[in-house]
TrEMBL record:
Sequence intervals crossing the membrane: 232-255
Protein name: Uncharacterized protein
Keywords: Membrane, Signal, Transmembrane, Transmembrane helix
Superkingdom of the organism of origin: Eukaryota
Segment forming the signal sequence: 1-23
Amino acid sequence: MLTFPFVLALLPLACNLFTPVRADKAEIGAACEYAAVHLDVTTYALVTGCVPSAYCSSDNICVARTCRRDEFPYGYAEDAVLPPRCEEGYVCPDEGSGCVAQVGPGETCQVDRDDECSKADDWSDLSSSRNVNGSICLNQACQYQNVTLNSTCQIENLVFIEYTTDGNPVSDIRSRDNCRRGGYCDGTSLTCLRTLNIGESCTADKECSSYNCNADKKCAVQAHSKVTPATWVYVIVALCIVLLIAGTFGTLWYFHKKSRAEHQIMLEQYYTEQVAYRQSLFHLSQTRDSLFSLHKSSNQDSARQTLLVHSSEDDGSSPRDQNDR
């Protein structure tokens, strides 16, 4: 059974195990190990042990780069003075140690650096997305990518390590060869074969003219190609838009008409009530005026006599008979 003091003693070791290791890069002018310069096994990027703006010289000193490949190189401050790019016919090596002239077929080049090879005389016919000006660096040797169909070819397989969203490593094999455009080098026979069209069965991306062999082992369109919908898709989309607009206007018109009808009924009821109320007031006013205008100029007896006359008319007797009674 573990005791409490023993657990406390293990805490520093556990903290060290879960503490990330900081890989400090040597600054310009600091010492480095030239013999340790190598290519990263997952990305084939040059690892020198120096900061990105420097390289490790043969004197084991980090020296500032004197050239650059990219327009916006990595590792420089925004206000830093960037080293120049090389002129045509020259290239900047991975170290950035200075511009060097492009080399011809058979000469040494760095991994995946097709631009270090000089262009072929018929480079316009050989040029493709798989080379630079018709030249390719294959197995660290410059070659022209001009081998025709059914001819012997050379092949180079580079394994890149990629990571999924879960952090799991996945190997991506990129196969390159020196076959002319429209062909690929078969890994078994080392012979240039015709590239496959879309829909044909394949085993690797390089076998397809689109360089995309999908999960069904069929050549598919290029992964970065734009999707062009058919004409009927545009027609259906246009009809849907028109129907949507018409439906919107129709719905608005229906509810507006319904609201106006309800409002009209309310107004009619209101005006009917107002007219009835006005007529009632008018009749009341007339009745009042009639009562107050009855024989205003006659005396009280005349008024009483008038009432008697009205009463006698009702029972059929005359006022005189009423007096005799």
